[in-house]
Amino acid sequence: MKILIADDDPVSRRLLQSYLQKWGYEVTVAVNGADAWQRFEQGDFSIVISDWMMPEMDGRELIRRIRASTRPNYVYAILLTSRSQKEDLVEGMDAGADDFVGKPFLAEELRVRLRAGERIVKLEQALAEQNRELRAAQESLQKAADRPGG
Amino acid sequence: MPTPTADTPNGKPDPREKALRINIDRGRYGAFAEIGAGQEVVRWFFQVGGAAGTIAKSISAYDMTISDTYYGTCERYVCRARLQSMLDFEFEGTVRPLDAARGATTAFFAFADTVSARNYKGTNECHGWLGVKFQAHPRAAASQVLIHVRMLDAENAQQQEALGIVGVNLLYGAFFHHHEPEHLLDSLLDSLTVQRLEIDMVEFSGAAFRAVDNRVMSLKLVQLGLSNAAMFAADGTVLQPSEVLYKKPILVERGSFRPVTRVHLDMHRCAREQFLQEPAVRGEAVVQLMELTMHSLMVAGELDYQDFLARADLLAAEGMTVLISNYFEYYRLAAYLARYTKKQIGIVMGLPTLREMFDEKFYTQLEGGILESFGRLFKNDLKLYIYPLLDPATGDLTAVQNLEVSPKLRKLYGYLVDSRCIEQLNNFDDRCLSIFTPDVLRKIAASDPAWEEMVPPGVAAVIKARGYFGYRGGPPA
């Protein structure tokens, strides 16, 4: 599964990349929000982990753009933030984040949250596939019904 | 009149006995010059009797203009330079007129102090400089001992009394223990306690102290409990802490530096770069210190002076100013530094030390435990700069961002990171992460030349030239 990391802090980036690769994910790193958006548009990512505070484009704006994009597949978005106040959480969720991981983070906590994200992405993919199949079956039925004598 | 007693380890003479012994020694004759806390030292010599045999002159030039007439102009009156000009002036002023008449049988001396004792409102820093310039023997080249004291008594009268006693101790030590500088040092607080007076700098110089290494004396100040900290520069000059630290931002790295390695210097470089970006530090002259605690100087439970000098030489090779302290706990180090400056303080440490700081077992002696410790540590805008740790076995990096602390301390840790009291160093040199000091020592002992890549070239050169840490030459045949 492909994950995009957006963080302007080099040590955080390095730690996240190292954990994620160890856990078997395919990782792309971006050094700020604008860089992340550019990479997102070029790639096919299932999960995005983004720092909240970044230069050029912050994490909320990045996630807003991801949600507004016309990409067919669901992207699971995790905001990585040192902020812990409730209003920030609401603001982040409002922007479209699925989950939060606080900084400093625990590797194990990140791993289980990613697993949860992965499950949701897979469910979304399965659902999308089922919808596609349903639509195809519907179309076949419709075509059969539209046929003369059908 | 008391009878002078023998100065034995079990029977230390009191100031009265010391002053009397000096007075009845016909071979000592000199001048006293005191500014700032009365004439408390010379008073002892007048009181015990027989002063005429010791005192050629006693002066207290209180008026600044009068003082300048004698000793020259100066910016501050309570400083080392003023003390030195007083000593030089009074010593020359004693020897020149008297040498012809009695120089063959008299060892001349000049004693001086310049002091800021407690003012009426109690708003000033109570400290002073004391010194004696003397001939160890008649017509010997001059020798000198300078000390800086912090006067901790609450009342001016008590401070004056303590000053008088330490002055007598200094003279007595210089005259009768100059051949044993360690004993001299140890005797400076006879009849006093460190609660009353702290001696945070001592400097020996001149003919009688040719063999004295002032860095070792600085160490002994702390070891003997005369002070909790002492400092010296890369060239070995002893420094008086307030003259170095006063109103300056300070960056300090604690370590055993046995020996100083590339990683120590990389830690310092990274921290300096980040510290200089702090808005409160930008454009300021930062004092950079390498701190050795007494704890880290113990090798197999003993203080090894040669080992200490080896470490000091290597730090000197890198141009570092050294702080020796007895402050095992970081909050005590912070309080010590904050005594001299309200500017920002940065402490550089490795990740393992930060991990230890979040171990509650270190705070059992504090009523408020870890919270009290951190409360004391992080006041005055202090910041910890953390160097990451690489696990050589797994290749895993541990940094501030992923350090695991006890679950009940996680919120506190998060708060301190959030508030930027704890900051990760992010400009480190990856090549330094795999350097560990014990490996360097092992490789030196095993004549494995790989150690040379682990220390700066200047440090490697000194280790090789002086055979430090068991260095025996190249690789085994």
Secondary-structure map:
The complex is a heterodimer of chains A (150) and B (477).
Chain A: E1 2-6, H1 10-22, E2 26-30, H2 33-42, E3 47-51, H3 59-68, E4 76-81, H4 86-95, E5 99-102, H5 107-146
Parallel strand pairs in A: 1-2, 1-3, 3-4, 4-5
Helix pairs in contact in A: 2-3
Chain B: H1 15-24, E1 28-35, H2 40-48, E2 55-59, H3 64-71, H4 80-102, E3 107-116, E4 127-135, E5 142-151, H5 156-176, H6 181-186, E6 197-206, H7 214-223, E7 229-232, E8 238-239, H8 241-245, E9 250-254, H9 262-275, E10 287-293, H10 294-297, E11 298-299, E12 302-303, H11 305-317, E13 321-325, H12 330-338, E14 345-350, H13 351-357, H14 369-377, E15 383-387, E16 389-390, E17 397-398, H15 410-418, E18 422-424, H16 437-445, H17 457-466
Parallel strand pairs in B: 1-2, 1-3, 9-10, 9-14, 10-13, 14-15, 15-18
Antiparallel strand pairs in B: 3-4, 4-5, 5-6, 7-8, 7-13, 11-12, 16-17
Helix pairs in contact in B: 1-2, 1-5, 2-5, 11-17, 12-14
GO molecular function, one term (chain A): phosphorelay response regulator activity
Keywords (chain A): Coiled coil, DNA-binding, Phosphoprotein, Transcription, Transcription regulation, Two-component regulatory system
InterPro entries (chain A): CheY-like_superfamily (IPR011006), Sig_transdc_resp-reg_receiver (IPR001789), WalR-like (IPR039420)
Provide a brief overview of the structure.
The complex is a heterodimer of chains A (150) and B (477). With 150 residues, chain A is α/β, with parallel strands linked by helices.
